[in-house]
Amino acid sequence: MKILVTGGAGFIGSAVIRHIIGNTDDSAINLDKLTYAGNLESLQGAERSPRYAFERVDICDRVALDRVFHEHQPDAVMHLAAESHVDRSITGPSDFIETNIIGTYTLLESARAYWSALDEEKRGAFRFHHISTDEVYGDLEGPEDLFTETTPYAPSSPYSASKASSDHLVRAWARTYGLPTLVTNCSNNYGPCHFPEKLIPLIILNALEGNPLPIYGKGDQVRDWLYVEDHARALYKVVTEGAVGQTYNIGGHNEKQNIEVVRSVCALLDELLPESPSAPHFNLITHVSDRPGHDLRYAIDASKIQRELGWRPEETFDSGIRKTVEWYLGNPEWVAHVKSGSYQQWLNTNYSTRKESA
Ligand SMILES: NC(=O)c1ccc[n+]([C@@H]2O[C@H](COP(=O)([O-])OP(=O)(O)OC[C@H]3O[C@@H](n4cnc5c(N)ncnc54)[C@H](O)[C@@H]3O)[C@@H](O)[C@H]2O)c1
Question: What is the mean pLDDT of residues 142-156?
């Protein structure tokens, strides 16, 4: 198979490409605009394979998309390109509307034109796999509640609202035009090559520098954490074996409060860097004012993908978080390169306005 992966220079997209190149005989075309979040160094050697190609293209650019479909003749699309950071969507929603909604619409139209012109066999085999988030469901009330594939949408942030819109567009293109689509909604990912604006890499890198570890509010928000390589395996299973028109929820059965996650990272750093002048690292924890509209709890019921496709996560939270911390300690060059001027500027904008809280 030839798979067109949008957003392949991002955190999850790069893990998907590393999986395709490292564990299958398929080819991957990485289509990415290379925003601040795109980093070709995250491909970690996969880019040297003859089965890999890169196209620097914006998913809002219809002409460029049509050219890519025409030149590469993919058998499937895995659509991960998105603006993905909730805090950025609050300070500046327009890029989220542009890429997540208009970009997905433009990609759907380009894919539909290409797919309609394929011969019958290829048209039947073609897949458009849209990668989405559990944040489209809003937050859960009861401590035992779980998001299923039929939970109604109730997004809270500009990010999750734009992802919800794109999910609706994909389902409409399937119902109206017959485009063979699949949708997956996944919980919070963590692992190697995660851009350090997100909680876990932010905490690791701040702790290494002896800087405060900012926790929103009390840190009691619950997320269901999934190791990114488990997610990449799940996505590949869905695009190759999933039933057309279906939605699959993907989760790690690892519900943790943010404060527990931060304490785990601190404990690992204490163990791996016993000489660190910042140990014990949990002394660096600083509570700051919460994000507006912050959902309290997300948790996924992943029984459908387990039952129907035989996927389940291989990493526990303990094994995955250890691998993650070790990866950041072992890859200082990757870290140094992503910590560019624009990233520093963003950190200042986001955190300088937050007051310390008790
Ligand atoms: N990170 C998570 O925990 C998580 C969980 C569930 C679902 N998701 C979804 O998975 C997908 C990937 O998330 P991620 O964390 O890897 O995101 P990311 O921000 O790390 O990467 C996004 C990638 O998309 C590219 N991109 C952005 N705008 C583009 C455009 N207009 N045209 C082409 N490329 C563009 C960026 O350059 C970047 O390489 C997103 O759709 C996100 O909504 C993420």
Answer: 93
